[in-house]
Amino acid sequence: MTTENKYVLITGATSGIGYELAKLFAKDHYNLVIVSRDQQELENKAQEFRQLGIDVVPIAKDLFNRDAAFSLYEEVKNRNIQVDILVNDAGQGIYGKFQDTDINRELAVIDLNIASVVILTKCFLKDMVQRNSGKILNLASIASKTPGPWQSVYHGTKAFVLSFSEAIREELKETNITVTALLPGATDTDFFNKADMVSSKIVQEGKLSDPADVAKDGYEALMSGDDKVISGLKNKVQIGMSNMMPDSVVAHQMNEQQKPASQS
Hints:
With about 260 residues, this protein is α/β, with parallel strands linked by helices. The chain has one domain (about 5-264): 3-Layer(aba) Sandwich (Rossmann fold), CATH 3.40.50.720. It has ten helices and seven strands. It has helices spanning about 15-25, 40-50, 65-80, 105-130, 150-170, 190-195, 200-205, 210-225, 235-240, 245-260, and strands at about 5-10, 30-35, 55-60, 85-90, 135-140, 175-185, 230. The protein has a seven-stranded parallel sheet with strand order 3-2-1-4-5-6-7, with helices on both faces. Strand 1 (about 5-10), helix 1 and strand 2 (about 30-35) form a beta-alpha-beta unit. Helix 4 (about 105-130) packs parallel to helix 5 (about 150-170). It is globular and about 55 Å long. The relative contact order is 0.13. One of its GO terms (cellular component) is membrane.
Protein backbone atom coordinates (compact mmCIF):
# COMPACT_ATOMS: atom_id res chain seq x y z
CA MET A 1 0.00 0.00 0.00
CA THR A 2 1.53 3.31 -1.02
CA THR A 3 1.53 5.78 1.85
CA GLU A 4 1.55 8.84 -0.41
CA ASN A 5 -1.39 11.15 0.38
CA LYS A 6 -2.70 8.79 3.07
CA TYR A 7 -3.73 10.29 6.41
CA VAL A 8 -3.57 8.78 9.85
CA LEU A 9 -5.55 10.35 12.69
CA ILE A 10 -4.02 9.76 16.14
CA THR A 11 -5.59 10.85 19.41
CA GLY A 12 -3.27 11.38 22.36
CA ALA A 13 -0.52 12.02 19.81
CA THR A 14 1.74 14.40 21.73
CA SER A 15 3.14 12.02 24.35
CA GLY A 16 3.70 8.40 25.29
CA ILE A 17 2.59 5.58 23.00
CA GLY A 18 0.57 7.91 20.74
CA TYR A 19 3.63 10.08 20.07
CA GLU A 20 5.79 7.04 19.34
CA LEU A 21 3.15 5.72 16.94
CA ALA A 22 3.01 9.10 15.20
CA LYS A 23 6.80 8.95 14.71
CA LEU A 24 6.51 5.51 13.07
CA PHE A 25 3.77 6.65 10.69
CA ALA A 26 5.69 9.83 9.85
CA LYS A 27 8.85 7.87 9.05
CA ASP A 28 6.79 5.77 6.63
CA HIS A 29 5.56 9.01 4.97
CA TYR A 30 1.98 8.95 6.16
CA ASN A 31 0.40 12.37 6.63
CA LEU A 32 -0.84 12.97 10.16
CA VAL A 33 -3.85 14.45 11.90
CA ILE A 34 -2.66 14.73 15.50
CA VAL A 35 -5.09 15.36 18.32
CA SER A 36 -4.65 16.31 21.97
CA ARG A 37 -5.87 18.98 24.37
CA ASP A 38 -2.76 21.17 24.32
CA GLN A 39 -2.56 23.43 21.24
CA GLN A 40 1.03 24.53 21.91
CA GLU A 41 2.25 20.97 22.37
CA LEU A 42 0.46 19.99 19.16
CA GLU A 43 2.20 22.81 17.26
CA ASN A 44 5.59 21.71 18.62
CA LYS A 45 5.05 18.11 17.56
CA ALA A 46 3.61 19.17 14.18
CA GLN A 47 6.79 21.14 13.45
CA GLU A 48 8.89 18.11 14.37
CA PHE A 49 6.93 15.75 12.11
CA ARG A 50 6.85 18.19 9.17
CA GLN A 51 10.63 17.96 8.98
CA LEU A 52 10.05 14.47 7.54
CA GLY A 53 8.30 16.02 4.54
CA ILE A 54 4.72 15.12 5.42
CA ASP A 55 1.56 17.13 5.96
CA VAL A 56 0.62 17.45 9.62
CA VAL A 57 -2.74 18.81 10.78
CA PRO A 58 -2.83 19.58 14.53
CA ILE A 59 -6.33 19.75 16.05
CA ALA A 60 -6.87 20.57 19.72
CA LYS A 61 -9.86 18.73 21.20
CA ASP A 62 -10.80 17.73 24.74
CA LEU A 63 -12.03 14.18 24.21
CA PHE A 64 -13.27 13.96 27.78
CA ASN A 65 -16.21 15.77 26.18
CA ARG A 66 -18.35 13.65 23.83
CA ASP A 67 -19.28 16.68 21.73
CA ALA A 68 -15.57 17.23 21.02
CA ALA A 69 -15.34 13.77 19.46
CA PHE A 70 -18.23 14.56 17.09
CA SER A 71 -16.78 17.99 16.27
CA LEU A 72 -13.35 16.44 15.59
CA TYR A 73 -14.91 14.28 12.89
CA GLU A 74 -16.76 17.28 11.43
CA GLU A 75 -13.59 19.37 11.37
CA VAL A 76 -11.67 16.64 9.55
CA LYS A 77 -14.49 16.29 6.98
CA ASN A 78 -14.68 20.06 6.50
CA ARG A 79 -10.96 20.05 5.66
CA ASN A 80 -11.63 17.36 3.02
CA ILE A 81 -9.22 14.96 4.68
CA GLN A 82 -9.78 11.25 4.13
CA VAL A 83 -8.67 9.31 7.22
CA ASP A 84 -7.21 6.01 6.03
CA ILE A 85 -6.06 4.85 9.47
CA LEU A 86 -7.65 5.75 12.82
CA VAL A 87 -5.63 5.34 16.01
CA ASN A 88 -7.65 5.70 19.22
CA ASP A 89 -4.79 6.17 21.67
CA ALA A 90 -6.01 8.82 24.12
CA GLY A 91 -6.91 7.35 27.49
CA GLN A 92 -6.60 7.98 31.18
CA GLY A 93 -7.01 6.24 34.51
CA ILE A 94 -7.84 7.12 38.09
CA TYR A 95 -6.16 5.50 41.07
CA GLY A 96 -7.62 4.54 44.43
CA LYS A 97 -10.24 2.35 46.01
CA PHE A 98 -13.56 2.79 44.22
CA GLN A 99 -15.30 3.78 47.46
CA ASP A 100 -12.92 6.76 47.77
CA THR A 101 -12.48 8.01 44.21
CA ASP A 102 -14.23 10.98 42.60
CA ILE A 103 -17.25 9.86 40.58
CA ASN A 104 -17.03 12.87 38.25
CA ARG A 105 -13.44 12.05 37.35
CA GLU A 106 -14.49 8.45 36.75
CA LEU A 107 -17.33 9.48 34.47
CA ALA A 108 -14.89 11.71 32.56
CA VAL A 109 -12.49 8.77 32.18
CA ILE A 110 -15.38 6.63 30.87
CA ASP A 111 -16.23 9.35 28.34
CA LEU A 112 -12.59 9.56 27.17
CA ASN A 113 -11.77 5.84 27.18
CA ILE A 114 -15.11 4.56 25.89
CA ALA A 115 -17.50 7.20 24.53
CA SER A 116 -14.95 9.07 22.41
CA VAL A 117 -13.53 5.80 21.07
CA VAL A 118 -17.02 4.64 20.08
CA ILE A 119 -17.91 7.99 18.49
CA LEU A 120 -14.71 8.32 16.45
CA THR A 121 -14.78 4.68 15.39
CA LYS A 122 -18.42 4.96 14.31
CA CYS A 123 -17.91 8.16 12.32
CA PHE A 124 -14.72 7.20 10.52
CA LEU A 125 -15.71 3.55 10.04
CA LYS A 126 -18.82 4.56 8.07
CA ASP A 127 -16.53 6.34 5.58
CA MET A 128 -14.16 3.36 5.48
CA VAL A 129 -17.05 1.00 4.73
CA GLN A 130 -18.14 3.19 1.80
CA ARG A 131 -14.60 2.95 0.37
CA ASN A 132 -14.10 -0.66 1.51
CA SER A 133 -10.66 0.20 2.88
CA GLY A 134 -9.15 1.34 6.16
CA LYS A 135 -7.46 0.32 9.37
CA ILE A 136 -8.28 1.02 13.02
CA LEU A 137 -5.95 0.62 16.00
CA ASN A 138 -7.54 0.79 19.44
CA LEU A 139 -5.44 1.06 22.57
CA ALA A 140 -6.68 -1.58 24.97
CA SER A 141 -4.32 -2.83 27.70
CA ILE A 142 -3.48 -6.03 29.50
CA ALA A 143 -5.82 -4.39 32.04
CA SER A 144 -8.59 -5.46 29.65
CA LYS A 145 -7.89 -9.08 30.61
CA THR A 146 -7.91 -8.77 34.42
CA PRO A 147 -9.99 -7.28 37.23
CA GLY A 148 -8.09 -4.24 38.53
CA PRO A 149 -8.36 -3.36 42.22
CA TRP A 150 -7.16 0.26 42.76
CA GLN A 151 -8.01 0.93 39.09
CA SER A 152 -11.43 -0.68 38.81
CA VAL A 153 -12.93 1.81 36.35
CA TYR A 154 -9.84 1.96 34.11
CA HIS A 155 -9.67 -1.85 33.82
CA GLY A 156 -13.39 -1.91 33.07
CA THR A 157 -13.03 0.65 30.27
CA LYS A 158 -10.19 -1.30 28.67
CA ALA A 159 -12.20 -4.54 28.86
CA PHE A 160 -14.85 -2.65 26.89
CA VAL A 161 -12.34 -1.47 24.28
CA LEU A 162 -11.03 -4.99 23.68
CA SER A 163 -14.47 -6.59 23.47
CA PHE A 164 -15.75 -3.79 21.23
CA SER A 165 -12.74 -4.06 18.92
CA GLU A 166 -13.04 -7.83 18.55
CA ALA A 167 -16.78 -7.60 17.88
CA ILE A 168 -16.60 -5.03 15.10
CA ARG A 169 -13.59 -6.81 13.60
CA GLU A 170 -15.78 -9.89 13.16
CA GLU A 171 -18.56 -7.77 11.63
CA LEU A 172 -16.04 -6.43 9.10
CA LYS A 173 -14.40 -9.73 8.14
CA GLU A 174 -15.89 -9.72 4.62
CA THR A 175 -14.42 -6.24 3.97
CA ASN A 176 -10.93 -4.84 3.43
CA ILE A 177 -11.07 -3.06 6.82
CA THR A 178 -9.16 -4.35 9.81
CA VAL A 179 -9.49 -3.56 13.52
CA THR A 180 -6.52 -4.21 15.79
CA ALA A 181 -6.28 -3.93 19.57
CA LEU A 182 -2.94 -3.11 21.22
CA LEU A 183 -2.53 -4.47 24.76
CA PRO A 184 0.47 -2.95 26.53
CA GLY A 185 1.34 -3.53 30.17
CA ALA A 186 2.58 -0.83 32.54
CA THR A 187 4.48 1.60 30.29
CA ASP A 188 6.80 4.50 31.05
CA THR A 189 4.46 7.35 30.10
CA ASP A 190 2.69 10.20 31.89
CA PHE A 191 -0.28 7.85 32.52
CA PHE A 192 0.62 7.12 36.15
CA ASN A 193 1.19 10.77 36.97
CA LYS A 194 -2.19 11.79 35.49
CA ALA A 195 -3.91 8.92 37.33
CA ASP A 196 -2.29 9.95 40.67
CA MET A 197 -0.75 6.50 40.71
CA VAL A 198 2.98 7.13 41.22
CA SER A 199 2.77 5.77 44.78
CA SER A 200 1.60 2.35 43.55
CA LYS A 201 3.76 -0.73 43.93
CA ILE A 202 3.73 -1.39 40.17
CA VAL A 203 5.34 2.02 39.53
CA GLN A 204 7.64 2.08 42.54
CA GLU A 205 8.93 -1.48 42.17
CA GLY A 206 8.00 -2.65 38.67
CA LYS A 207 9.90 -2.40 35.40
CA LEU A 208 7.93 -0.21 33.02
CA SER A 209 7.89 -0.88 29.28
CA ASP A 210 9.43 1.55 26.79
CA PRO A 211 6.62 3.31 24.87
CA ALA A 212 8.68 3.08 21.65
CA ASP A 213 8.74 -0.74 21.96
CA VAL A 214 4.98 -0.82 22.61
CA ALA A 215 4.30 1.43 19.62
CA LYS A 216 6.44 -0.77 17.36
CA ASP A 217 4.46 -3.87 18.40
CA GLY A 218 1.18 -2.07 17.75
CA TYR A 219 2.34 -0.65 14.43
CA GLU A 220 3.47 -4.03 13.13
CA ALA A 221 0.25 -5.73 14.26
CA LEU A 222 -1.86 -3.01 12.63
CA MET A 223 0.04 -3.25 9.34
CA SER A 224 -0.26 -7.05 9.37
CA GLY A 225 -4.00 -6.80 9.99
CA ASP A 226 -3.75 -8.77 13.26
CA ASP A 227 -6.72 -8.84 15.63
CA LYS A 228 -4.66 -7.98 18.72
CA VAL A 229 -1.18 -7.97 20.17
CA ILE A 230 0.01 -8.18 23.76
CA SER A 231 3.18 -6.09 23.88
CA GLY A 232 6.16 -7.60 25.68
CA LEU A 233 7.05 -11.18 26.67
CA LYS A 234 6.54 -10.50 30.38
CA ASN A 235 2.98 -9.31 29.72
CA LYS A 236 2.23 -12.26 27.42
CA VAL A 237 3.35 -14.64 30.18
CA GLN A 238 1.33 -12.80 32.84
CA ILE A 239 -1.87 -12.91 30.78
CA GLY A 240 -1.26 -16.53 29.75
CA MET A 241 -0.99 -17.52 33.42
CA SER A 242 -3.94 -15.40 34.55
CA ASN A 243 -6.12 -17.06 31.88
CA MET A 244 -5.67 -20.34 33.76
CA MET A 245 -6.58 -18.95 37.20
CA PRO A 246 -9.93 -18.08 38.77
CA ASP A 247 -10.79 -14.38 38.45
CA SER A 248 -10.77 -14.03 42.24
CA VAL A 249 -7.13 -15.15 42.37
CA VAL A 250 -6.19 -12.81 39.50
CA ALA A 251 -7.96 -9.94 41.26
CA HIS A 252 -5.97 -10.62 44.42
CA GLN A 253 -2.71 -10.71 42.47
CA MET A 254 -3.55 -7.40 40.80
CA ASN A 255 -4.40 -5.93 44.18
CA GLU A 256 -0.93 -6.88 45.42
CA GLN A 257 0.69 -5.33 42.33
CA GLN A 258 -1.31 -2.10 42.30
CA LYS A 259 -1.73 -1.22 45.97
CA PRO A 260 0.36 1.63 47.38
CA ALA A 261 3.99 0.63 47.85
CA SER A 262 3.76 1.82 51.45
CA GLN A 263 1.27 -0.99 52.18
CA SER A 264 3.63 -3.79 51.12
